[in-house]
Specification:
Length: 143
């Protein structure tokens, strides 16, 4: 995915389900979600082990989220990505279904990415949504 496509995603989609969002402020998922929330994004925590994060109700899975999800931002190990992508695919016919699968920095699952693309999702892999947003704001190209 090139920088223009990432820019388009960050500017077009404002509702982000963060799968694996920790309530621990020292974890990357928390810091990234907190930053995105401070930049005006609607953050929806998805973590079956917490009730609330960043002042938002947490859901057990993206299937349980009763509102529009535009980006599924994944903070789970690469081997945990395929079932999350399958859930997103199951939501494709629902109003307000996700448009983007975003695997955070260090997360690469080519098979899940292929399945998501075949189902019509935009896919970002091995990139940090916060870092990309900061680059966009500063006008710097991605490395």
């Amino acid at each position: 995915m090139n920088q223009e496509e990432i820019k388009s995603i960050l500017e077009s989609y404002r509702t982000v389900a963060v799968v694996g969002l920790s309530r621990d402020p020292d974890k990357a998922s928390y810091r990234v979600a907190q930053y995105l929330q401070s930049m005006g994004y609607r953050i929806i925590p998805v973590n079956p082990f917490v009730d609330q994060v960043l002042g938002e109700k947490s859901y057990k899975s993206i299937r349980d989220v009763p509102e529009t999800i535009e980006v599924v931002d994944i903070f789970r190990p690469a081997e945990s990505v395929p079932p999350i992508v399958e859930e997103a695919i199951q939501l494709k016919n629902r109003v307000g279904s996700p448009k983007v699968i975003w695997m955070q920095l260090g997360i690469v699952n080519e098979e899940a990415a292929r399945r998501a693309k075949e189902a019509g999702f935009k896919v970002v892999m091995d990139r940090c949504m916060m870092m990309e947003h900061k680059r966009l704001r500063q006008g710097k190209p991605s490395s």
